[in-house]
Design goal:
Layout lengths: L4 H16 L8 H11 L6 E6 L3 E7 L6 E7 L26 H17 L6 E7 L7 H7 L10 E8 L7 E2 L3 E4 L1 E10 L3 E2 L10 H12 L12 E10 L6 E2 L2 E10 L2 H21 L3 E10 L2 E3 L1 H13 L4 E2 L19 E8 L18 H17 L1
Parallel strand pairs: 3-4, 3-5, 5-16, 6-15
Antiparallel strand pairs: 1-2, 2-4, 6-16, 7-14, 8-12, 8-13, 9-11, 10-12
Length: about 375
């Protein structure tokens, strides 16, 4: 193991520090500053900041020809109130590291320590601390940043901890591992009236009441079925908070989910057709828009082979259970610019689920994740 017990104690303290000061997507300025401060002792050859927002990339360059390898973690937390009793719980009301990005970033800081002790013999290693993963905007912004051309990798790897898997167990497969998803906002507009004379207005009540079950019914199947589709109603609103007004306005927000990007166009068209017909049938104006767009995440066979070799060498047990996942991940964007693969690292069979208010990243995974990645780094760059 390239990390000493002293390293692991310090890295655990760093993880707890990041946990205490969570910042949500697009607001990770102080988190990025903390990451840069902790990177200093590892002496990367270059550090890029403000990448795609508040992203940070630490580059360890051998100066010799060889593969370029990127390892990605995430900087952002969630707008969820943390409900744990850990002494390092969030100090920011309503925000919390309830997905484990604090732990993922600490794993990359562990890799920086290992690369400082023994730098790559060929090629280069890029440790990317990515902003705004939770909104699906971060990876696209990083790749679109002109500075990314300097670090465009041959391989890109990432991990995500996964409650429900045994602690330290890995799940890894080729092909799709995370679904495509996007949010659709449907706004319906009619005409207000006095609540005693609703017939003088145009209410969206019938449309919104019918649309919610109709949209949900578009879903079918479960991954890994290629025709898997899912629609989840996440928010609905109608009218004003008043008893004297028959409503004119309504909104429905829903998350659309498919196994692959190719299927998403079909689901969007079906949802739009339903909404448009409902608006027309009820004499309503309609406006539709999309947000939080995630491409599906697909593991490249060559990249998966590299990870499997590292797992075998480190004697870490792995299989393909729980994959592909219905959840989305914006790491899939890196598949368009490199051979990419993500693996999932068990957080424990009884561990609170991701995005639960009582979730906390297991510190034991810092060492496990770091040694898997470091073995893959050595295999490609020694």
């Amino acid at each position: 193991m390239f990390l000493s017990n002293h390293d692991l104690v310090e890295l655990t303290d760093i993880r707890h520090e990041l946990h205490r000061f969570p910042e949500i997507s697009g607001q990770e300025k102080d988190t990025a500053r903390r990451i840069c401060a902790h990177l200093e002792e590892s002496r990367p050859d270059r550090v890029l900041t403000d990448l795609g927002g508040h992203g940070v990339a630490a580059i360890f360059d051998s100066g010799n020809d060889g593969p370029s390898m990127l390892i990605r973690s995430e900087l952002d937390a969630l707008p969820i109130l943390e409900k744990t009793d850990v002494p390092y719980r969030s100090t920011i009301e309503g925000h919390g590291h309830l997905c484990g990005h604090d732990g993922h970033s600490t794993i990359l800081l562990a890799l920086a320590r290992g690369l400082a002790k023994r730098r790559p013999g060929k090629g280069k290693v890029i440790l990317l601390f990515q902003p705004a993963e939770e909104t699906g905007a971060g990876a696209a912004a990083v790749i679109a940043d002109r500075s990314f051309e300097d670090i465009r990798p041959d391989y890109a790897f990432s991990l995500h901890n996964l409650p429900g898997l045994p602690l330290g167990h890995v799940s890894l497969i080729e092909g799709p591992v995370n679904c495509a998803s996007r949010g659709i906002k449907i706004k319906l507009t009619g005409k207000t009236a006095h609540a005693s004379s609703p017939e003088h207005g145009v209410s969206p009540m019938r449309a919104i009441s019918a649309l919610m079950p109709a949209l949900s019914s578009l879903g079918q199947g479960f991954p890994p079925q290629p025709d898997f589709k899912m629609v989840t109603i996440t928010h609905a609103m109608m009218g004003e908070a008043a008893f004297g007004i028959a409503p004119a306005n309504a909104e429905i927000w829903a998350t659309l989910r498919t196994l692959t990007d190719e299927r998403m166009a079909e689901l969007c068209a079906a949802a739009e057709e339903l909404a448009t017909k409902s608006a027309a049938d009820n004499a309503l104006a309609i406006d539709m828009s999309y947000a939080d767009i995630f491409h599906h995440c697909e593991n490249d066979p060559d990249a998966v082979a590299q990870l499997r070799m590292a797992l075998d060498q480190e004697q870490v047990q792995y299989d393909g259970r729980s994959l592909p996942m219905r959840a989305s991940e914006d790491f899939g964007r890196f598949g368009a610019v490199s051979k990419s693969a993500m693996f999932f690292l068990g957080a424990g069979t009884d561990h609170p689920n991701l995005h639960n208010p009582d979730y906390d990243f297991p510190d034991a995974l810092i060492a496990t994740g770091a040694r898997i990645f470091m073995r893959a780094i050595r295999n490609l760059t020694d």
